[in-house]
Amino acid sequence: xxxxxxxxxxxxxxxxxxxxxxxxxxxxxxxxxxxxINEALxxxxxxxxxxxxxxxxxxxxxIAPEAWAADTAALKNLKAYTSEEYKALADDKKPAVxxxxxKVVTNKYYEKNxxxxxxxxxxxxxxxxxxxAAGYVKVTLLSGETVVIVAADATxxxxxxxxxxxxxxxxxxxxxxxxxxFGATVAE
Length: 188
Description:
alpha+beta; disordered N terminus; four-stranded antiparallel sheet; 21% helix
């Protein structure tokens, strides 16, 4: 039921029609990626955890610089760490640049059937760095084996471009200083 006629999975969409990226205004500020997940799928998987058919279900977003992973296949192949997991690694155990992604575990909806993952505290030298992101669902079987389902398409964007689109749309509200802080400008 979650696969189309070509056998491709269709339950997770990283490109909903209302846009997938936004500026995260709350502290810490950053770039937010949205993913729409099939509600029936999540309900079914959560019921399977509740009845003991599955061990666990995790939802989240994988994020990495586009130069490291421009599509979902590449994102899925990178070793994923939460920021806490990465910080806990000894310096000599940290992975090489370009070999890992940020894993933002959500496990709850931001809006109806939509989860978000954000990259925050972006250095000003990275305001124009494109980041690729894709939502995922990770299922842990009773055996401990895991299956990760990643959205078919990655969203690629940078915080300066998103901030500029917001300003260009006519926004002139309370968060204008945050948007300008990401290098966006107001037309004279």
